[in-house]
């Protein structure tokens, strides 16, 4: 009976390690997948800044903020926050901030709901769900956050 209990404890320990690594790998996959979507969008914005400003002035309905400020904030968020997610630095705040950028994109462009192809708005909901999963799971072992925490100990 003692041997059986010892085996169970060893397996439980291994299960915890595998579970921890599973969460870490899922977090990396989510961070990189969603980060890449937003980084591409930010790169498109800065590649033709005049067109980006026109979109924010005439197409997007940004509440409260002037269009120019919204364009700068949106592009900055889409370029900086994904890099933080890629390396896993201040991961939870970066994921929450990117979730806010995502929500603002959906709210400021109501035409997303009018397209015949529901993928346009569904992508944003999918990305938001993955970002919230990163907030819930944390950065995992494969991140600068985890490395800095280990180093601080």
Automatic annotation (TrEMBL):
InterPro entries: DoxX (IPR032808), DoxX-like_oxidoreductase (IPR051907). Signal peptide: none annotated. It is found in: Cell membrane. Keywords: Cell membrane, Membrane, Transmembrane, Transmembrane helix. GO terms for cellular component: plasma membrane. It is a multi-pass membrane protein. Belongs to the DoxX family. It comes from Pseudoduganella ginsengisoli. It holds the Pfam family DoxX. The lineage of its organism: Bacteria, Pseudomonadati, Pseudomonadota, Betaproteobacteria, Burkholderiales. The keyword Cell membrane applies. The keyword Chaperone does not apply. Coiled coil: none annotated. This is DoxX family membrane protein. The chain crosses the membrane at residues 94-113, 125-144. It comes from the Bacteria. PANTHER family: INNER MEMBRANE PROTEIN YPHA-RELATED, OXIDOREDUCTASE CATD-RELATED. Its main location: membrane.
């Amino acid at each position: 009976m003692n041997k059986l209990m010892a085996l169970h404890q060893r397996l439980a320990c291994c299960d915890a390690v595998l579970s921890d690594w599973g969460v870490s790998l899922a977090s990396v996959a989510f961070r990189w997948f969603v980060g890449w979507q937003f980084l591409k969008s930010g790169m498109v914005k800065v590649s033709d800044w005049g067109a980006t400003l026109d979109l924010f002035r005439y197409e997007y309905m940004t509440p409260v903020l002037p269009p120019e400020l919204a364009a700068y904030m949106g592009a900055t968020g889409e370029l900086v926050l994904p890099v933080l997610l890629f390396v896993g630095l201040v991961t939870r705040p970066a994921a929450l901030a990117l979730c806010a950028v995502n929500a603002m994109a959906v709210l400021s462009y109501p035409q997303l709901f009018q397209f015949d192809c529901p993928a346009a708005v569904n992508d944003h909901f999918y990305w938001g769900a993955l970002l919230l999963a990163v907030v819930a799971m944390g950065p995992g072992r494969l991140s600068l956050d985890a490395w800095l925490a280990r180093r601080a100990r």
